[in-house]
């Protein structure tokens, strides 16, 4: 970029796009009981609106990664953001649960081009020595977006109705999309390169083979899939669980889980110091342990106030583990970074989709205790596994 001010502006706009995208992902969680009541189905069946978004989001990562490498990451993010508005507009008007699920899938498919390509753009344009701090700042958009989605979903469901939540998303997507388009025009006027010539030569299949042919990349991708399954499968049902167990409103339940963002923000503030003290392996182990304590707190807390602590711990523990995975993802295949990060995000959100589907079945057939207890046991084991894998990994390459 020609100047730091231009770089900062470009990254701030990407963070705004990530905010709206993350809001869309979590906005349905607290409204599941209302959707189930309106469409005459179970909460587990209503959760298809979450699963459809996550599946489409995850699958289309594999498409958007090479497209971003080939046609320009920033340009593709701007187009994807506007396309998300169309899916959300359809959700506003959806006459049935099946149509709502379809519209959510459209939004998820378009949204697949936002966060991973934003991360890859940062990887391309921010020097390695500043990249981790820059990614942490970018993460604030995602963290706050997830929190805002949880809160807004419950608030709209309890007041004017769930359809207005999607109307708010339409406005957000359109505003950010226009701002991103203007930034693309500024970059072109400044003569900033939009396309990676190596990506054009390699082609879509060649880039995918390069990523999947890297052993370390396969370990990172498998780990982030399981992480998404265990963390977000349980979190998707946390608002409904708190609503039913403690007889609190959907707004309150959504707000309690939204405190997750506080834990994430705490991570962004202390990330550098913790990394210096614990190292990457220590972060992975600590993240798994903190997540285990968080889900035990959801399960065993005697009063609803315990869920405040649980949510903060869940956010902090998740980013301890996930940021370690994410940093490795931006460097695991530097020559096809857009594709590599897209596969990383794809595996994360496919894990979330599988987790929500599995969690819905567990809640309907067994109960929430098995859901939260399972995550509490398995997440510390996952953190320990990745810490051990880090010890044996090849030395990261730098651009």
Automatic annotation (TrEMBL):
InterPro entries: MFS, MFS_dom, MFS_Efflux_Transporters, MFS_trans_sf. Residues 10-391 form the Major facilitator superfamily (MFS) profile domain. The keyword Disulfide bond does not apply. It is found in: Cell membrane. Keywords: Cell membrane, Membrane, Transmembrane, Transmembrane helix. It is a multi-pass membrane protein. One of its GO terms (cellular component) is plasma membrane. The chain crosses the membrane at residues 48-67, 74-93, 99-123, 135-156, 162-182, 219-242, 248-270, 282-298, 304-321, 341-363, 369-390. One of its GO terms (molecular function) is transmembrane transporter activity. Pfam families: MFS_1. It comes from the Bacteria. PROSITE patterns: MFS. This is Transporter.
